[in-house]
Each structure stands twice: as structure tokens, then as C-alpha cells.
Amino acid sequence: xxxxxxxxxxxxxxxxxxxxxxxxxxxxxxxxxxxxxVYPNTYFVGMSSLGFQTVYHLLNSHEHVVCERAFxxxxxxxxxxxxxxxxxxxxxxxxxxxxxxxxxxSVSYELDYINVARMLxxxxxxxxxxxxxxxxxxxxxxxxxxxxxxxxLADLIDLFVVGEAEEAIAPLAEGLLPQSRKGDVISACAAxxxxxxxAQPRRVTRQHVSDLDAWPTHxxxxxxxxxxxGLFLVEVSRGCGRGCKFCVTPxxxxxxxxxxxxxxxxxxxxxxxxxxxxxxxxxxxxxxxEIDEIARRxxxxxxxxxxxxxxxxxxxxxxxxxxARSGARSITLAPEAGxxxxxxxxxxxxxxxxxxxxxxxxxxxxxxxxxLYFMVGLPGEGEDDVAAIPALVRRCIEEAGxxxxxxxGAAFVPKPDTPYEREPMLPARELSRRLxxxxxxxxxxxxxxxxLESANWAVIEGVLSGGDRRLGQVIVDAEATxxxxxxxxxxxxxxxxxxxxxxxxxx
Length: 507
Ligand code: SF4
Fold this sequence. Notes:
Layout: H1 3-20, E1 33-39, H2 43-46, H3 50-60, E2 65-71, H4 75-83, E3 102-106, H5 113-122, E4 138-142, H6 144-148, E5 159-161, H7 166-176, H8 182-190, E6 195-197, E7 231-235, E8 237-238, H9 249-252, E9 257-258, H10 261-271, E10 277-281, H11 291-300, E11 304-307, H12 317-325, E12 330-336, H13 340-345, H14 352-364, E13 369-376, H15 383-400, E14 404-411, H16 428-442, E15 448-452, H17 455-465, H18 471-480, H19 485-494, H20 499-503
Bound molecules: iron/sulfur cluster.
Iron/sulfur cluster is lined by residues 240, 242, 244, 247, 249-250, 283-284, 311.
């Protein structure tokens, strides 16, 4: 196949998607600051991110800014693009990324760091910051992963927005106006609250908005090609008041804030013009002090209701009733640990009986499927705790009469800025053994679907989570050699870095 045809296929994919979207913004580039907002994963994944959509909306709400989007091409289109000399282009106007003033990455997950390098390479830009000059776009990044620790990407990115973007965007957009040399722009922006310049490291304060109601956060772009295709998403809270020791939410999104019922309903009404189902998003939706009223009124509007997460100890009858009346078939709980003792030790503080009670009540109301999240390798975990996971799953099925349970299992990854940040991470081999034990135990269970993550990738995530600048070259090298596990190992070896120095005891 000739390169022109391969590029034409990518453009056809982009045009098909943008034709179907509701909420896409087309603006003339003339005289405006041109920003390409990049999600370092596929369109399907990126369009599921409310944070990504919010930044798109906020940037385009400035008259002097035009913000377009780019994603990692789907595998079939990526292979084609790799063979052409054509650079990656934006969705809205199919403009090559190199022609933008600013490339802004929205980075939610550490394992997407490799795609940051990939996108810069596909854009035909020097991947390393030091090799880019005034003729190249400024490259910035924000999002949950880099707000926890930007250092692994510091050699690739010029500026980081640390924390929540809403109040940071206006002054940043002013500072980014293309009126002076890149070095001057970086210096000016580096003085702003929450902006971390890789070339001028200093301590910055993670930003947060004080009044959620002042910043409506809901779906801004609707497409059929995303996990939440049928839903209009509305954020109900930010942060979490619980104290699970492994979790970044309480510190990264501190303080806990609730959106008022009135503001949630206002967004929901807007959403019902386009969708018949409202998805409530938050770290622990059932903890919202007005959740019963919100759920009742959304169902009263004739909408179907969906919620992202529930705490077993705060699932009310009213919420279960609203979910059941919405036709929900499944609820999601995160016991995290199989045994009560370990759950107590990690700060989860939920008893077996509370989990079973929530599932029994849901099942009685007609919601007879569940998704349960567990972790292995938590500090203090013993063989009994691992064995308690399948045992608890069986009790859930039998005592609640569930017809299907999805067991999502992942490895504990120590994250910066959590009480467990200095805890060692178990070697991949041992984590795999524990995950395998759960798989073997539950394999005969017809009503269980297993979704167990790779321990090897969890270890890479751990290295990147608490990593430093030396990993910049590792990310670039791993990307250049395919991005698989072998590529990561080789890149770490070449840099003379070991997993143990990032994840071992006493690091
Ligand atoms: S795991 Fe859930 S309940 Fe616990 S602190 Fe994190 S968001 Fe809150």
C-alpha cells in the first residue's frame, strides 16, 4: 500500500468520528493561540475522560484560543502512519501538530507516558525538551498522573500544570499568547501558581477549585465510540473523605468537595437533550450527602441512572431503588482486600457483612450482577488474605444470589503522596503468583468473570509513579523499540537502572 493511501485511511477515520460528534468546536485559527490537546491513548479511551473534555471546553471558551484534539491512532491506522512521512494531525481541522503554538497533554495514567513520547515522534517533533527550539510548539502536560509526580516526563515536557486545571487555565492561556520567545513564555508561566517548569524546578502547590458549582463538569463531547457512549456524565464530587492508605485521591484531589444537588440536576437536564441516561462520576458517589435526592430527581426526570462507584457502607435504599428503576443490572464495589483484618489495616474499614448487605439489597431490588475490585500485594498481606478474596466472592454470589460477578484484580502500586508511598512493591513474580492463586480458585465458578491485570505492567507503573528524571530517556528508548515489556527492560538496563532502586525496601 502506498503511503498516501495509508494517510487517507487515518483521515477517513478522523472525519467519520468528528462528523458524528456532538459538541465539537470549530474555530478559525487566524490570530488565535493554537492549542492541540492530546490524549496519549486512543480516541475510545481519551473520549471517556471527563478531565480531557473539560480542558477542551475551557480552552475553547477563551475567544483568543482555538483548541483542537489529537489521539494515538488506532492500531490499524498507527501502522499505516508509521510507514508514511506524514505527521500526526488534529481532529478538528486535520492540521499537523507541529503547526500548533502549544501541544497540551492530558495524562491520567503512568503507563501512557510512553504514548507521550510516541505522539511527539509521530508529530515529527524532537521528543526531548532540550532538542526543541523556538520554532517548535511549547509542550505542556497536566492530569492526575503528572500532578502526582511530573519528574519522569520532565525531560520531554516544558511546563506542567499541577492539580486541577479550571482556575489555572485563564492565566496560563494569557501567558502562552505567542508574543515572545519560548524561554520568555516559560519563565512567565513558571511564576504562575501550580505551574512547574521542567527547566526551572521549584516547589509548587497543587491547584484545586474551591467552589465546584462554579465550574460545571459534565460531558462536553458526545460520541458513540467510547465506553460511556450512552451516558451523559456529570461529576458529583472531587476528592474523598476516606483514608485508604494506598489511594491518591484524598491527597491529589484535596480537599473533598461536593457539587450541590441543584448544580448536578442542572447539568443532568442539559444532558437529557442528547442522552436518556445520566452517569454520576466521583470517587465515592454514594458518600454524597444529597445522593438520595439527586438519584430520585434524576429518575423523576425520566432518565436512567448510572453511578461510577459505591461504598458498601453508604449505599442507601433510595439509591438502590433508583438504580433498579433505571434498569441497572450491575453495581460496583471495591472491597480491595479479601479479609476484614487487612481491609482495616489499609484504612478501607468495611466489614464483610456491609459488602454482603449492600449486594443482598441490590439483588433483592433486581440488580443481580456486581463488579468487585481487589488488590494483591498490599502491605501486610499474607496467604490467608489472598485466599480470602475468592472466599468472599463465593459468599457474595451465594448469599446475595448474584448471577454474575466480575472480579477485577490488580497489584498494589505504591503511589507518591499516600501513606504507603515508601512501602516496597512485591516483585512481579510474586504478584503474579498471588493473582494466579485467585484465578485458579475461581476458574471453576461459572458465574465469575475474571479481569486480572498484569503484574509486570504494574511494576512498570510503580517505577514511573515514584520515578525521577532519569526515566525520561528510558521512556523514549522503550517507545523507540516497540514499547513492550522487553523494550522497557532493555531501556532500564541501558540506563543502568533497576526496578529495585525504585520499588525496593528502603529506597
Ligand atoms: S479507595 Fe475509594 S474510598 Fe478509599 S480513599 Fe480512595 S476514593 Fe476514597
